[in-house]
Amino acid sequence: MNSLPLPGSDSSLSGEFLQLPGHSRCTWQSILMVIAGGVTAAVAATTRSLPILGLAFLPLLIAIGLSLLNRSHIVLWALVLLAPVNDHAGISLGGTTIRAYGLLTLAGLGLLALYLVHDKTNPYLRRAFHLVPLFLPLILFSISKVATVVLIEEFPMTMTRSFSLKYVIFSSLLFGTGFVTATYLRDWTHIKRVLYAWIILGNIITLYGFIQIVLSNTLHLHLVHHRDVIFYGRPYSVFREPDVLGSFVGAILLTILPHAVYRTGVFSDRLVRMTLLLQGTMLIALFVRAAWVATALCLGVWFASALVISRLGPLLKALNATLCSGILGLITVSILIPSFAGKLIGRFASLAAPSTESASEFRMRDIQTMMAKLKPESLSNPELMTLLFGHGDFSWSYWAPTLLGENYDRAAIELMQETGIVLTHPGFFMTLAVFFDNGLVGVSLLTLFFAGLFVSYLRTLAGTRSLENQVMAISTLLPVVCILICFQFSYDPISPFWWVMIGIHAATMLLIRQRLAATEPDWTRQS
Length: 527
What we know:
Structural class: mainly alpha
Strand content: under 5%
Radius of gyration: 24 Å
Strand order of the largest sheet: 1-2
Number of strands: 4
Helix content: over 70%
Largest sheet: 2 strands, antiparallel
Mean pLDDT: 80
Number of helices: 20
Low-confidence stretches: 1-25, 519-527
Distance between the termini: 14 Å
């Protein structure tokens, strides 16, 4: 199989777009909206009225939306490429930041709504219907989140219902991000091009992390954190903190590893070598224990998958070579930089004894306090409702300072007292954080979604004999599992890049099942 060209280099992809019935009508509507926005802006300028000026943006936004909704590939590619830079792709409006992933997800869902009205036979609409059963637990999860906001009776400090409701909307849009990504990945060529672009983007993000290390240690710029953990510091690249970068690096590495081991040819040899070098080096250099543990466990998932498809030989050969080179590398580094080896051993030792490291001790205290708050004193109706539906999205941001007191982040407490601004803090353990926020109902629905994802994967993997199908299934599942494991140690719920990965995997499974059933429609067949 020949390696793929860079995304967008093929005019068949970059020039293609879906046209709605009445495409010219939508174009005229866009033009009229632009005119209406211009007239409103002129009136606002004449009257010097800020409210009228705000209204001028509404028809302009509608015009942009109509233009995008006629070009689904633009929505998909923008969603995929902007997801990792979520922290920088947003517009701040007072206490709320409107993120790009939210707007693009709404655009993708809006397009499906137009198809539902104008063209019920549209292939993307049919794909969406096929994906609804998989995403149904998340739909129910979003509904239960709204129920939680309604049922909240106990509020800490100055927390309000609107605070949790805001994050209910954000998380629901995250689920929609996975659904939209899976819906608009229409065929094998499209998925491969998105993966190609994803790997290149991941390498750029990781390379930027290395640049941060260099600049921080040569020009003394503040681009790294935690020099107490490692002397050259830990970069964060485009993310909030090094732990999130670590989960992303592990996911990118695990995306390409199966293709490197089984030599599928989906990626060029040069790109494979560069990715393995960049991501492997950064994975070690970051000193993120969650990413190390996740990568090791994902290799176990891969090992089990290889047993199912009877392709264990290449994996064992690759693992032996990696183990030998890794041991040699660690011995070399230990000789050249003894302090590095000491820090490396210390990071693993702190897993067994968290009290020996201040960061680990703080996390354990946070988790223990959250667990204590979860235990109901009785099963009276209010406490039963809290046990079932939780305290509300991101409510731990308020409960943590209240319950931990001086043991909480002092700077965060002072920020809250002096300005009223809350440092959003979901907790450090994803499963427990979801339980705290959304109760037993919420954590059960989220577990049901991932259980459905894994069951679908196992059934699909066992049912295909095609090497391409098998490797694509493995290489899209492993990054999802990697981040899922990482978030059990350092949780970042506003992370659309994870949901894009989930969408890619869901689309891959759907296309493999269509191939196996020989019911793949013409628009997904390759020439």
